[in-house]
Write a structure and sequence with these properties.
By secondary structure, this protein is an all-alpha fold. The protein has a domain at 42-104. Helices cover 60% and strands 0% of the residues. It has helices at residues 3-10, 17-22, 44-101, 110-113. The longest helix is centred in the middle third of the chain and has 58 residues, at 44-101. The termini are far apart.
């Protein structure tokens, strides 16, 4: 190997300081490493915000689908556009209203949910 290249790689600083800051020792960046031990728990405020945005997004999609279905039945191609748009707005507002009422569960520690390796013994063949 070329010692010049090895020294250059060892002295390289991370390109993105945010990613280096988010990385969990022994694992990768939480958004890119699906391992439960690599994940970080949300604060209660983040958990509350995420649950409300998920309800709002789900309501928007359901409203858009329902509005498009009604629109195509009543107005054809233009009805799909108008119904889908109106349904998306109504669904998003409905999801936001539900989000104000629903309280999310307390965040769990993902490191405690990680599965531990277990030894599985292969059954012996019957003769």
């Amino acid at each position: 190997m070329n010692p010049t290249l090895i020294a250059a790689v060892e002295d390289t600083q991370p390109v993105d300081g945010d990613l280096a800051e988010q990385a969990v020792p022994g694992h990768g960046v939480p958004s890119q490493d699906p391992s439960p031990a690599a994940q970080q728990t949300l604060t209660p405020a983040e958990s509350d915000r995420e649950s409300k945005s998920a309800l709002m997004g789900g309501g928007m999609m359901a409203g858009a689908a329902a509005g498009a279905a009604v629109g195509v039945a009543l107005g054809g191609p233009v009805g799909v556009f108008v119904g889908g748009t109106a349904g998306a707005i109504a669904g998003a507002l409905g999801g936001a209203a539900v989000g104000q009422v629903v309280q999310p569960e307390a965040p769990a520690d993902p490191a405690s949910e990680a599965t531990k390796p277990v030894y599985v013994e292969k059954p012996k063949a019957q003769v």
